[in-house]
Each structure stands twice: as C-alpha cells, then as structure tokens.
C-alpha cells in the first residue's frame, strides 16, 4: 500500500506542518485542531510513565491539607491512556488504588480497590467533573489529553513569559463536562501548556491552571514540576507538585488490570 | 448675628433663593454616589460576633446564599413523567443563573446503587425522555424516603418540590449582582410557567429576600413619598389656609431632602432598607419648623402688621424654640449611633443632618420665599381658639382628678412593656403582599421553614471525621436533632456514609449502618467523591483536611427567643455528649435572632445618653433646673406608654422598634419645650399664677402643637403603610408615641406643674 503517492508533496507538507508556520488559508477551527494535533504528536511515544504527585489544598481561610498519590500511566495508540493511581496520604486511604481506562468519547472504565473492604469495585459513572479528592482539580482535568475530547478554535498569538504562545479555545465534547470551554496557552517552541482558563456551565470564569518549572525527559517529553489551580469563585486553590518522573520503566497492560489493583501497594 | 441673617433674607430674597439653589444643587450632585445595598449582611456591623462566626464558617465550607424554586403542581403529585421532565429542564437551566455554584433537585440527586461489585452513581432522573408512568411509584418511594431529600427537596406527600440554587456573590458590585441573579431567575420562571401551565412556581431563598429588601424599599419610595407630600400640602392648606405657605414649605422640604441625600452621597453613605426611609422622616420633621413660623407670621399679619415686619417678628419669636427643638430632635436621632446595626446608625445620622439643614433653610430660604410669594391676609381681630380655651379651663378645674387618673393610666400602660416578646423574624420583615413572603409562607406550610442553623463540629485532627467515634456522635446528634419538635430537616454526612456502606454490601438494608472502622469510612468517601459531578461535591459539608463537618438543620419559622433557646440546647447536647469536639453554630437566621437583643442593650445606653443631654439642654434653655426635672416625666412617659400599647397591637419587638424610644424622645421633647417655654414666660416674665400660666401656654402654642402633632402622626402613619415591616412598625409606634406625647403634655403636664410648681414656690418663699 502506498501511503504517499506523491512523495514530494508529502515531504513539503510535513515540513510546513512541522515548522508550525501555517501558510494555508485555514479557518480558526482548523488551525486550533492543527495545534492540538501537533501538541499530541510532539509528545507521542512516551510509552509508560511513573510519577509522584503531592497535592496541597487550601481553603479561603488559608487552611491546608496534603494528599499524596503515586501515578502510573501507559500510553495507548488508538484509545485513551490507561492509568493507575495509588493513594498514600491521608493515611486512612493508604493503599487505595484507582484504575482508569480513559476513552476519548463516552464514559471511562474505572475500578477502585478498597483495602479496608479488600474488594475491587467498578465505578459506573459518567461524572468526571467533580473535585478530585476534594481539590480544585476535577477528575477530567487530570485525565489524558485526547484530540477527540474537544473541538477547537484558534484565537490569537500572545507572548507568555519568555515564549510566544498560541491561544486556543477548546470546547468539551462530553455533555457531562463541567465546562463550556477552556482557553489554553501553548508555547510555539515546544508545544507546552502554560495556562488554562476554565469557564463553567454558564460560561463564567471558574478556575485558572498555571504550569511551572518544565523539565525535559528522554530528550523529548516536557513535564511540569508544579501545577497551580486557583478557583476564582470560591477562592480555594490547589498546588500539584510532581516529583520522581520515570519514563519507560517497562510497564505493560498486565500492570493495568483488576488484579494488578490489589497488588498495587 | 441672627438679626443680620433675617435682614438678608427679608431684604434680598432673590439672592437668598439663588444662593440656596446653588448650594442645594452642589450638595445634591452627591446623590449620584448613593447606592442601595440589598445584602441582608448590611444589618450587621463588622464586629458582630454572629456575623463573624458565620463568615468564617462560609470560608471553611461554602456559601449558603440561595434561590429556591418552589414547584407546586396545581393538583396531584410531582411524580409524573412530564413534571419530572419539567424539573429536569429547570435544573439544567438553573446552572445558567449568574454566580450559581451548585444546583440541587430531585432529578440531579446523585443516586447510588449497587450491582454485584459495581457501584452506579448517577442522577436520579438522568434522561427524562426514557421516563415511563411505571417508574413513578419507585421514584416517589425513593425520593420521599431519602433523608437528604425528604422535606428539603420534596414534600413527604410528594406534591411540592424544590430546585435549590446555591449562589456565590462575588460582592464586587453589590448593587448590580443581586438584580442580575433575580432577572435570570424571573426569566426562568416565566419560561417554566409558560411551558407548564398546570404548575405554580414560587421564588424564595436568601437572594430573593435580599432582592425584596431593595424592591420593597423602592416601592415605598415611589408610593409613600408622594403620599407624604400630598398630606403635607393638604394639612397646611386646610389648617393654615395658605397656598403660598404650602408652596414655600414644600420647597423647604424638597431642598432639605435633596441636600441631605446629596451630602450623604458625598460622605460615602449607602442606602439600605431602614435608611431609605430618611426622606419620609425628614419631610415630617421639617414641616414643624415651617408651621411654627407660618403660624406666628399669619397671626401678626392678621393684627394688621406689614408683611416684612410680621415675618421678622415671627422669626425673632420662633428662632430659639425652633433651634432648641431641632437640636433635641437631632440628639434623639444621633442616639441611634449606639445601635449595633449600621443601617440605623445611618438613618439617625442622615435624619439628624436633615433636621439641622431644615432649621437653616427655615430661617433663611423660607422667609425669603414668603417675601417673594404673594400673601393676602385681611387684618382681623385675633380669633381666639375657643377649643383651646375650653381645654385649658377643663384641665384647670379638673386638675385634682386628672393628675391621679393620668398617673394611673400611664402606669397601667407601662406595666405591659415587659410583656412584649423579642423577635426578629426576617421573613416577617415583609408583609403578606410581598411575593417573597408568600413564597416562604407556602414553603413553610408544605415543606420546611426558612430558619436554618449550621453546626460545624471540629475534631481538631486531619481526617478526623472518618473516626467511628466521630461518626457515631454525628449520627446520634442528627437523630436527636431530627426528634426535636421544631425540626423540618437535617442534612448530615452520616446519611451518605450509611448509604454507601449499604451500597458496598450489595444494597443489603442490614448494612445501612456506620462503617466499622476509620479506613472503611475514608475509602467509601474517596470512592463517592471520585464519582460526583461538578457542583454536587461534599465540599459544602466537609472542610479541606476533613477535620470537621457541617450539619445543616432546617426548622419551622421560629421567634428569636426560640432560636436562641434552640442554640443553647444544641451547645448543651455537645457539652453533655461530646465535649471533646469544638462546636460552632451560626446562620443568617441566628444573626437576626441575636441582633434584636444586642441592639436593645446598646440602644438603652444611647437613650440614657440622649435623655441626660436633652434634659440638660432643656434646663439651660428654660433657665431652670426645676422645669428641666419636671420635663423628664412627660418626655419619658410617651415612649414607655407606646411600648405598653404595642403589646396589644403586635406584642413583638425587634431590631426596628429598639430604636424608636431614642428617636421619638427628640421629637416629643418639642411639645414640652414649646409648652414649658410659654408657661415659664407667663410665670416668671409676666408674674402670672400657675393657672393663668397654663391658660396662657394653651392659648399661645396649643393650636400649633396639635397641628404639628397631626402632621407628624400623619407622616409616620404614612411610613406605617410600608410593606417593609421594619419601617412600618417603626412608623406606627412612632406615630403612637407622638400622639401620646401630646395627650400627656395636655392632660398630665399642666396638672403636674400646678401641683409641683405651687408647692415649690411656697417652699422657696418660706425659706426666704
């Protein structure tokens, strides 16, 4: 099968796409989609990943609370990624493990292992919009980015820190999403997210997520050390601190099933 | 000095008029800064302990300002596919209300069901299109028996339901935010009623109450203020028989009001329900100055005096009493600064300023206007007030019986003062014509009251809420609270935990119990929280580190005393059963429950302060300590009698009435001042006997006194027509007190003077 009938055109268009200079007369929607595809493409091939996640929750009174979670994820070619979260803190949920097969469209498959009950429970719910462990992050903010989850509209170019960013609006496809839209700032040099503004169901500003301290792994994959989410309506905020990123440690599908849940300690 | 002021007013009236206009316009420009704050929180000072407790609780959990759609099918049950679809649609639309953060209804209730090892979490009505009549009994059974929904979102009979929207006002532009919410709510209501003509929809909740504060006040402003003007015009035309005089008085009133409100704007005041009655009160008080000047002016004209001379005489005679009464009235209103509630301080300060502005305009602009306006009076003989002569004759001849019988009447009314009940029920701040009141009464009759009390129970340790001992305490407390006679609904974490425990054991009803250990509880909640949608999380019941949880009790509408007693019982329960936890109790209704009492205590200090100041002023003005002391009785008695009579009219005293004693004192003193000053003039300057002095006092000020009293009573009776009960009660009690004051000054003060003054004179002569 010939994938590319006219090699020269193929090479040319690949070059054009890769250099991110969009010379075609495209609509704002097409350009938004192209940027999303490029973002997804540029991070492709990370295979599997492990990391340590610390959440610091703060309320309007300035009271703090800490959550600690270990995260393992497995890249999927044709579907949403698989992920396994193991809760370490607070101590009374230690050992609880959450397995999720995310899907670009429709409900995710989710299982939770409750060590106190010694059972795996499947959670049948379409809800991904609630707060994750009482934080300002919704579960949907933490699931893997898939092209099909949104429709897009490119807005403008704008400086972001020392970088130049694309500003792209994303509209969730899932009717159960808590948002009408997200406005994302993606830098043009490395396709990294710098900021997301979330708008609630009535299209009022809800939250802002900022990414900081990006590190590059495997010479390709950029990951932030810090994600700060601020809720503008409640004045609560949550910091998400990432440590111990590890890529390609050899995880496989066998590490992401109901049986592996119980073993995950 | 004052002669020079009179000179300018009488000789250059045009200039005085122009200068007044310029000054008034400059002052009035400040009115653009005046905004109306409709938030109920304005009733509380920043240091109010109940407000502080409530605000801190709101920061720890989430805000509880709300709008409640009350859905009442005209007949039959809520549980039909069509009606549930309508509620489902309203629930969806409610997320579009500005500043909404949460919407609770029976359709989006997060129902949990177990199927083998699956936990299904979904809306009770996920897709209304699939609903069939056959589903109805199951849904009704479930909703009307669930402790979270029963009596909160659905009536036990299933005939009334509520969609509750939690609103988080940013508070950046308090003037615009509430109307913004209400406009959207009303749009939804119209849509709903059009689509569902067989269902009634009512609007309640704290946001609707805030809005009613604003709308009731604005309503008052457009109906009561014009009515007041009409009464003033009619009263002056009929009683003093002068169009020009009425016109000049109206100009003074308008100038006084707009410059007072303008100055309030310049100095950063904002308007609230109580303080928006400032114009009505000022109007009433400003009339008195003009009436006194007009009365003497016309008396002189009838004596055949030339216009300018007659006016000058009137100004000369009235300057001191008008000044004195303005100052005492201002002091009375300034006593409201002792109030715990800022809107009443503002009302007091604005009226005090207005009274002084009215005084200044009365001696400058008023004579200038009278000079400019045509005034025709035929010289005629002094027409003696036959009525007043008869009255004084009656009092003098019956003084021996009047004094004891009036004393008995005064004491008999005052005895009832302590029978008044202390009550601030903010629902009843609005009369039954206000839609918010109707909606809330309907809700109370069919579902639950608006009284809510929030109880935060803190373990002091992170994740402490998962401990079995804590959950047990919470469960016991919730059970106890549910058993209290005044309770309609209790929202508690333990109901959720028990349901989850049942779900985790294959929906076996035997497991509708608290989990056996801490880890189980924690893991259930983690599981549950992972599966909740946006806005329906547990953050409104749990704090950030899960060291405390909040129970919300909803109760039948209770009086302030009942609420304070209930609050005490709640604290007592924890003292007896769970002293190890830190318990905090707060809510808007509790704030109102406490404010009446706090305000009465603080106002007592204010009244004492005003009383001492006013009595001292009177003593100085009348150049007699004795008259100052004698004046105490007729000045104090009317307010005390007013509250005694109030027991028979309403019997409930709250925030609004606690300021009446202070503000009426300054007004009732006026009668005493005018009467005593004329009496003293006759006794000392003219050397008349006590009887003749009383006769003289009646003849010279009797008529003016009852005219001003009539205008004042009419004015405050207009205020009494307000649909906003705070203002209506204040108006009514003030009107009663002022009327009593006149009666006391006519029937009690003269016999008292004749008794005390006589003996006193004899004693001093003996000493000599």
TrEMBL record, chain A:
Keywords: Lipoprotein, Signal. Residues 1-25 form the signal peptide. InterPro entries: TP_0789-like (IPR033399). The keyword Signal applies. Residues 80-263 form the Uncharacterized protein TP-0789 domain. This is Outer membrane lipoprotein-sorting protein.
TrEMBL record, chain B:
It is a multi-pass membrane protein. The keyword Transport does not apply. InterPro entries: MMPL_dom, Mycobact_MmpL, SSD. Keywords: Cell membrane, Membrane, Transmembrane, Transmembrane helix. Signal peptide: none annotated. The chain crosses the membrane at residues 221-240, 247-269, 281-299, 319-338, 350-375, 396-419, 603-622, 629-649, 655-676, 696-718, 730-749. SUPFAM superfamilies: Multidrug efflux transporter AcrB transmembrane domain (SSF82866). GO terms for cellular component: plasma membrane. It is found in: Cell membrane. Residues 246-372 form the SSD domain. This is SSD domain-containing protein. The lineage of its organism: Bacteria, Pseudomonadati, Pseudomonadota, Gammaproteobacteria, Oceanospirillales.
């Amino acid at each position: 099968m010939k994938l590319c009938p006219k090699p020269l055109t193929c090479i040319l268009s690949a070059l054009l796409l890769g250099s991110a200079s969009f010379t075609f007369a495209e609509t704002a929607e097409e350009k938004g989609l192209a940027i999303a595809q490029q973002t997804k493409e540029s991070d492709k091939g990370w295979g599997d990943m492990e990391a340590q996640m610390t959440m610091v929750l703060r309320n309007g009174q300035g009271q703090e609370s800490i959550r600690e979670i270990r995260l393992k994820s497995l890249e999927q070619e044709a579907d949403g990624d698989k992920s396994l979260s193991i809760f370490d803190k607070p101590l009374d949920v230690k050992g609880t493990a959450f397995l999720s097969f995310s899907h670009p469209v429709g409900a995710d498959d989710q299982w939770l292992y409750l060590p106190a009950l010694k059972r795996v429970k499947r959670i049948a719910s379409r809800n991904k919009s609630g707060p994750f462990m009482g934080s300002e992050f919704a579960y949907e903010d933490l699931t893997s980015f898939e092209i099909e989850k949104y429709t897009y509209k490119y807005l403008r170019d704008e400086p972001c820190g020392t970088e130049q960013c694309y500003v792209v609006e994303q509209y969730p496809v899932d009717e159960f999403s808590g948002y009408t839209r997200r406005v994302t700032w993606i830098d043009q040099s490395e396709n990294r997210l710098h900021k997301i503004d979330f708008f609630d169901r009535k299209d009022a500003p809800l939250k802002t997520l900022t990414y900081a301290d990006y590190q590059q792994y495997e010479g390709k994959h950029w990951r932030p050390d810090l994600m700060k989410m601020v809720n503008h309506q409640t004045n609560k905020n949550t910091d998400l601190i990432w440590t111990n990123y590890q890529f390609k440690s050899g995880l496989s599908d066998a590490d992401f099933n109901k049986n592996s849940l119980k073993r995950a300690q | 000095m004052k002669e020079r002021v009179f000179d300018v007013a009488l000789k250059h009236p045009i200039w005085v008029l122009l200068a007044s206009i310029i000054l008034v316009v400059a002052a009035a420009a400040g009115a653009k800064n005046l905004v109306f704050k409709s938030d109920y929180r304005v009733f509380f000072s920043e240091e109010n302990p109940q407000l502080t407790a409530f605000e801190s609780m709101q920061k720890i959990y989430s805000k509880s300002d709300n709008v409640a759609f009350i859905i009442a099918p005209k007949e039959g049950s809520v549980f039909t596919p069509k009606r549930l679809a309508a509620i489902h649609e309203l629930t969806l639309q409610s997320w579009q209300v500005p500043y909404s953060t949460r919407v609770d209804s029976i359709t989006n209730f997060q129902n949990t069901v177990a199927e083998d090892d699956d936990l299904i979490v979904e809306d009770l009505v996920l897709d209304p299109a699939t609903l069939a009549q056959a589903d109805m009994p199951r849904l009704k059974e479930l909703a009307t028996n669930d402790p979270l929904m029963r009596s909160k979102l659905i009536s036990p009979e299933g005939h009334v339901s509520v969609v509750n929207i939690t609103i988080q006002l940013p508070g950046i532009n308090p003037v615009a935010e509430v109307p913004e919410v209400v406009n959207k709510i009303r749009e939804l209501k119209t849509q709903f009623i059009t689509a569902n003509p067989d269902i009634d929809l009512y609007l309640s909740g704290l946001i609707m109450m805030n809005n009613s504060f604003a709308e009731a006040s604005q309503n008052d402003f457009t109906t009561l203020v014009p009515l007041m003007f009409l009464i003033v015009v009619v009263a002056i035309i009929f009683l003093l028989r002068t169009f020009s005089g009425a016109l000049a008085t109206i100009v003074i009133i308008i100038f006084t009001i707009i410059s007072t409100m303008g100055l309030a704007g310049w100095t950063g005041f904002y308007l609230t329900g109580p303080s928006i009655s400032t114009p009505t009160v000022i109007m009433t008080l400003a009339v008195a100055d003009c009436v006194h000047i007009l009365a003497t002016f016309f008396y002189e004209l009838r004596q055949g005096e030339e216009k300018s001379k007659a006016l000058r005489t009137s100004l000369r005679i009235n300057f001191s009493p008008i000044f004195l009464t303005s100052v005492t009235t201002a002091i009375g209103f300034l006593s409201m600064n002792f109030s715990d509630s800022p809107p009443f301080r503002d009302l007091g300060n604005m009226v005090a300023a207005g009274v002084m502005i009215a005084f200044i305009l009365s001696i400058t602009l008023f004579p200038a206007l009278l000079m400019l306006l045509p005034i025709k009076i035929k010289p005629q003989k002094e027409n003696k007030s036959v009525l007043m002569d008869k009255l004084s004759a009656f009092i003098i001849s019956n003084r021996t019986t009047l004094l004891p019988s009036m004393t008995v009447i005064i004491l008999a009314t005052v005895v009832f003062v302590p029978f008044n009940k202390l009550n601030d029920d903010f629902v009843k701040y609005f009369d039954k014509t206000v839609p918010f009141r109707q909606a809330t009464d309907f809700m109370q009759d069919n579902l639950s009251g608006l009284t809510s009390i929030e109880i935060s129970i803190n373990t002091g340790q992170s994740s402490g809420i998962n401990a079995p001992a804590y959950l047990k305490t919470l469960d016991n407390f919730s059970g106890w609270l549910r058993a209290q006679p005044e309770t309609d609904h209790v929202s508690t974490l333990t109901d959720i935990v028990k349901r989850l425990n049942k779900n985790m054991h294959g929906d076996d009803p035997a497991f509708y119990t608290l989990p056996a250990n801490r880890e189980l509880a924690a893991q259930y909640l983690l599981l549950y929280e992972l599966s909740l949608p946006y806005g329906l999380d547990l953050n409104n019941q749990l704090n950030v580190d899960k060291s405390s949880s909040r129970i919300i009790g909803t109760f039948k509408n209770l009086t302030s005393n009942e609420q304070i007693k209930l609050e005490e019982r709640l604290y007592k329960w924890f003292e007896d059963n769970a002293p190890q936890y830190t318990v905090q109790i707060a809510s808007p209704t509790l704030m109102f429950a406490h404010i009446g009492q706090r305000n009465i205590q603080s106002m007592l200090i204010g009244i004492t302060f005003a009383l001492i100041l006013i009595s001292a002023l009177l003593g100085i003005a009348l150049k007699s300590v004795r008259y100052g002391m004698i004046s105490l009785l007729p000045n104090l008695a009317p307010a005390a009698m007013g509250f005694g009579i109030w027991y028979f009219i309403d019997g409930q005293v709250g925030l609004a009435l606690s300021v009446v004693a202070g503000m009426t004192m300054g007004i009732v003193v006026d009668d005493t001042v005018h009467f005593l000053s004329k009496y003293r003039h006759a006794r000392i300057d003219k050397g008349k006997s006590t009887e003749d002095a009383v006769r003289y006092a009646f003849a010279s000020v009797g008529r003016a006194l009852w005219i001003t009293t009539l205008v004042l009573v009419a004015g405050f009776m207009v205020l009494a027509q307000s649909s906003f009960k705070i203002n209506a009660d204040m108006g009514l009690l003030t009107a009663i007190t002022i009327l009593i004051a006149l009666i006391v000054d006519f029937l009690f003060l003269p016999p008292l003077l004749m008794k005390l003054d006589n003996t006193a004179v004899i004693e001093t002569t003996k000493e000599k």
